[in-house]
Amino acid sequence: MPDARTIAASPEAAPTAAPAASVPFGPDRNGIVIDIDAVDLERNGSTLLDGVSATVRAGEHWTLLGPNGAGKSTLLSIVGAHVHPTRGTATMLNHRMGRVDVFELRRHIGHVDPRHPVRGRMTMLDVVLTGITGTVLMKPRWEPTDEELERAHAQLSVLHVDGRADADWSVLSQGERGRTLIARALMPDPELLLLDEPATGLDVAAREQLIASIDAVHKARPDLSSVLVTHHLEELPPSTTHAMLIGHGRIMATGPVDDVLTTERVSRAFEFPIEIGRNGSRWTATAAR
Ligand SMILES: Nc1ncnc2c1ncn2[C@@H]1O[C@H](COP(=O)(O)OP(=O)(O)OP(=O)(O)O)[C@@H](O)[C@H]1O
């Protein structure tokens, strides 16, 4: 059995940390949905996050950018209430980690994880419906209501894949899977949507459709806030409002997207000369000559 010191130092989110909350899950009275304050995360003797602070308000769409190993997914796992900070505080939807049942908190956060493990025979619609139960598999003896079925189809329709609702997961393309996972994450009607490299492995057409779908979701749900992790500026939806650059577990720049995504700041974060450009509502990044 682990001793008390091991438990206290464990970064894994304890499932039953505190009594059920009476405060509703949503923005606080200042409209803040994510409040990360002076967060450090240590694992196996390494510092993965070092003094990270971030504030996200309702309706903002953030991107978290940085080189491989910078700490992006680690930060997203704290915001998704999967990992506790070693030091500092993480408050999402007006509930601080350590004082809230993380399972309850997670039900209000849509998390699109490209490594989502679908098992057994499931259709696209089945996978979307598991967003209601918060499970990987269809819950035994659980049946969706007509309203839930209608909502699942409506989500797939916004993402332009409703025609494939009955297709088996095993035959879906990467792009169809990506959009299925977004629809799944939206099923509980979350206040916060986290997207971890949603365009990984997509061809250019599927990537463009995905970006258009994310924009459509932002338009359909103006109160929704989102955080999208990527390495590629070309993958940023035009609806992106803010950006954070992260390097070696530290924040390098944060603020409105046009202030942060500059040639100088991006080059510093990636430790490589990169020229940032705009192509209409999109961003480009090329090696500076
Ligand atoms: N359990 C762990 N123990 C020690 N180091 C870890 C652990 N988990 C992650 N790391 C390290 O933490 C650093 C940050 O990892 P993270 O996955 O957050 O980076 P990232 O910015 O998302 O990277 P990528 O762009 O490559 O996905 C990496 O160097 C990784 O090897």
From TrEMBL:
Keywords: ATP-binding, Nucleotide-binding. Pfam families: ABC_tran. InterPro entries: AAA+_ATPase, ABC_transporter-like_ATP-bd, P-loop_NTPase. GO terms for molecular function: ATP binding; ATP hydrolysis activity. Residues 1-22 are annotated as: Disordered. SUPFAM superfamilies: P-loop containing nucleoside triphosphate hydrolases. Residues 8-22 have a biased composition (Low complexity). It comes from the Bacteria. SMART domains: AAA. The keyword Chloroplast does not apply. Residues 34-273 form the ABC transporter domain. The keyword Nucleotide-binding applies. This is Iron complex transport system ATP-binding protein. It comes from Spelaeicoccus albus.
